[in-house]
UniProtKB/TrEMBL annotation:
InterPro entries: pH-response_reg_palI/RIM9, SUR7/Rim9-like_fungi. It comes from the Eukaryota. The chain crosses the membrane at residues 109-127, 139-161, 181-200. This is Pali-domain-containing protein. GO terms for cellular component: cell division site; growing cell tip; plasma membrane. Keywords: Membrane, Transmembrane, Transmembrane helix. Coiled coil: none annotated.
Amino acid sequence: MSRAFCIPGVVFLFCALVLSFLVSVSLPFLPALDIVRTHFGDTQDIQQFVTNSTGIEEVRADLGSRSACYYDPKGDRTCLPTGHAYSFEIHNQKQSVTALVDPSWTRGLAVHPVATGVTFLALLFSLSTHITVTLIASLLSFLAALLTLIAFAIDIALLGLTRHEMNKLAVGAHTITAPGFWMTFVSLILLLLAGCTVCFGRRRARMSGATTTSYPMKSGGFFSRFRRN
């Protein structure tokens, strides 16, 4: 592959891999890289109206790809058991209203680690200079981009559901996107750039490897063809 296209493609894939991996790990191991985050107004309102199922007064709830965490007014964090398709719920003080995010909405977050794995394979294939292997790297990059796009759509759906459920509590809940949400979006852009870069590099390498064979033409009149050499 042309060196001018090879190096940027590898860099794009490497950066996308790092971002995708961090989002896949997310909570509870990397608390700052959650996907959706909800704040519940000032502390007094939370103490008066909202407690979770374990009795911890709520000020914030974070959702990651593998778990959800609660923060009390003192900043102490309590996370749900790590696992696939987790669920969490928050009740008001009178137990009359429940904000629930069930496993059917968090199950799709498993697409994040799958996209990370495909991105890793694309990075490995992009290190080769063989034209066929770089074609596979380009296809894997676009496949990883598709999976990341699906994961990003799931994140958007989770954001909408969480915002709807938290607003039911009527305690001034404010649901926003978290760093993991935007890291997924950046990873998607990088994967698209990587796929195009690797594809263009392969095309340029194929064109530069092509050779044109020319045949010499003899000049002369009509009678020159009857001459003896």
